[in-house]
Amino acid sequence: MELFDVYSLYPVEPVRGSGSYVYDAAGTEYLDLYGGHAVISIGHAHPHYVRMISEQAARLGFYSNSVENSLQHTLAERLGALSGYDDYRLFLCNSGAEANENALKLASFHTGRAKVLAFGGAFHGRTSGAVEVTDNPAIRSPFNATANVEFVPLNDIGAVERKLAAREFAAVIVEGIQGVAGIRCPEEGFLRALREATERTGTVLILDEIQSGYGRTGRFFAHQWAGIRPDLITTAKGMGNGFPIGGVLIAPQFEARKGMLGTTFGGNHLACAAAIAVADTIAAEGLVENARRVGDRLLERLRTLPALHDVRGRGLMIGFDVEGSASELRRRLVFEQHVFTGGAGAHTVRLLPALGLSEAQADEFVARLKALLEDFH
Ligand SMILES: *Cc1c(COP(=O)(O)O)cnc(C)c1O
């Protein structure tokens, strides 16, 4: 059987990883500034993570959500402590898109309304509900009726207020920082104004922190820089450091009803063991602070390179533009400088490394990028 051919791939295969590096079968070392798409939070093959998963697999890998699973409570407690949202409740699922789907349903159950407001440039996943609130017609099929979803430009609070005035919207969904759009940060004050507008109109505010969360920006969730508390927060990518797991953090005013949400695999024993290991490591190694410190340094160093435009972001969630083709630059970074980076559109490069990236590794990346830029046009 052949694979259904939907991904554009580099002809390189990492077979082993360690911290911020991956290696191919020939032993070539690649510096990983991409983290497998913001997924690698505590680093590749972290020993504590490997031990926790291995021991759990040997003990009990899976049982369904029809019986007690104390690992879920442990994970919820760790996540409450790390995020500061101890008074919220956690619903566990398997991926980012699924977390958003469940958040949209919760908002609709809670308000009795059907419409959702989303933003230009938004990416919220590829499953049917999540893709409807994603601003990319190329990945939305005819099956996805968009009648319930409207879009307004990011940062346009006036447009948001006009939409919400009639109190017909169940929810507004917004990324802490837009990732797929090329690292677009909400302007100062926008998230606070959005919180006020949603509160005033009884609209649920959903913060999609799937890419921007889990410590990446130097706060546990990116929206915490704005000092707001959303009603629902979705998380996934960095949560399992590669083991598939996602979750919705749910504010106290939401009422749980038996059977209203559910999943077969969500919150299983292996996934919880992986996510607990991630949470423990983030706390023990001070990775949120590291992301802030090393991210600040990386931003500052990148801003000294004249070939880069609009170096932007927060912590270890960084984007910049180049005049030529970003995909050509990234391809040459892989094959000539042995560095993985991410893309976003024709001219943007995205950096989403493991949160434990060291200052020396950040400097090493800047040196390799600089070397390549000397003959890149
Ligand atoms: C990756 C991503 C998703 C989708 O997550 P999946 O695990 O791929 O379903 C949703 N929202 C944002 C902001 C993302 O970056």
TrEMBL record:
Task: Name its species.
Answer: Alistipes communis
What's a Pfam family in this record?
Aminotran_3
PROSITE patterns assigned:
AA_TRANSFER_CLASS_3
The family assignment reads: Belongs to the class-III pyridoxal-phosphate-dependent aminotransferase family.
Query: Does the keyword Acyltransferase belong to this entry?
Result: no
Q: Which InterPro entries match?
A: Aminotrans_3, Aminotrans_3_PPA_site, Class-III_PLP-dep_AT, PyrdxlP-dep_Trfase, PyrdxlP-dep_Trfase_major, PyrdxlP-dep_Trfase_small
Protein name listed in UniProt = Acetylornithine aminotransferase
Enumerate the SUPFAM superfamilies for this protein: PLP-dependent transferases
GO-annotated molecular function? identical protein binding; pyridoxal phosphate binding; transaminase activity
Q: Could you name the domain of life of the organism this protein comes from? A: Bacteria
- State the UniProt keywords alphabetically: Aminotransferase, Pyridoxal phosphate, Transferase
Q: What cofactors are annotated for this protein?
A: pyridoxal 5'-phosphate
